[in-house]
Amino acid sequence: MVVADSLAAFVDPALADYASLSTAGAWLAMAGYSFQLYFDFSGYSTMAVGLGYMFGIRIPQNFNSPYKALDPSDFWRRWHISLSTCMRDYLYIPFGGNRGSELQTYRNLMLTMLIGGLWHGAAWTFIVWGAYHGVLLSLHRKYGRGWDALPRAVRQLGMFVIALVGWVFFRATSFGMAAELLRRMFAPAAGALVPQPGLALAAVAVAAWWAMLGPNAFDMRHDITWRRRALITAGSAASLALIFGSRSSPFLYFQF
């Protein structure tokens, strides 16, 4: 959550004035938002798991390093696992899953993801976001062999960029905002970078390392050496100091 709040310090004002962003600024703002959303929701989910353990309640893992995903199917096995499992069990499989023809499977994927988008809010931008992921899942199912032959690092970075583009629709409050952000991302555009660009680049770099290369909390929970205990204790103390000593951003997923 500390990482998410640090990213929010430049992401929120940058996207509030999205029409003035340069191409580099638009990409940096959306990269920041991609990590902000992940660390925000994953942080709260992991806190719930930890609190559950304290009371003897086992709560399933909800995020498994989704930005380490190598393809769209892998992404949805790692992102918001409780929701993706629910959509699989109560939508995709009852629709027929992959038991019919290829066209029926693609239809089932699209319907599932459209409803998943609508679950986040009754707005066309969420529906387009769901359709976007439905198309990605269908394309990978059809043409995945070529993608899977690429080097691992290329697939991971490529999947992150693909997810980032989808977050434009998720974050946008209107099609106009989404279209303008995409135009500025994919066509040369003059304008501002982001507020505090040096700090923004540093925050995104740290978030990228942590989310795409570093271990997650669940990987480390059975291998807690004394050094890690000391680092976790020091990090927790520093995080509490930052949380209570600064303005925190609202939990992004409260709106859903």
From TrEMBL:
GO terms for biological process: alginic acid biosynthetic process. InterPro entries: Ac/AlaTfrase_AlgI/DltB (IPR024194), AlgI (IPR028362), MB_O-acyltransferase (IPR051085), MBOAT_fam (IPR004299). Keywords: Acyltransferase, Cell membrane, Membrane, Transferase, Transmembrane, Transmembrane helix. It holds the Pfam family MBOAT. One of its GO terms (molecular function) is acyltransferase activity. Coiled coil: none annotated. The chain crosses the membrane at residues 37-57, 109-136, 157-179, 199-218, 230-254. It is a multi-pass membrane protein. The keyword Cytoplasm does not apply. It is found in: Cell membrane. Its EC number is 2.3.1.-. GO terms for cellular component: plasma membrane. Belongs to the membrane-bound acyltransferase family. This is Probable poly(Beta-D-mannuronate) O-acetylase. It comes from uncultured Gemmatimonadaceae bacterium.
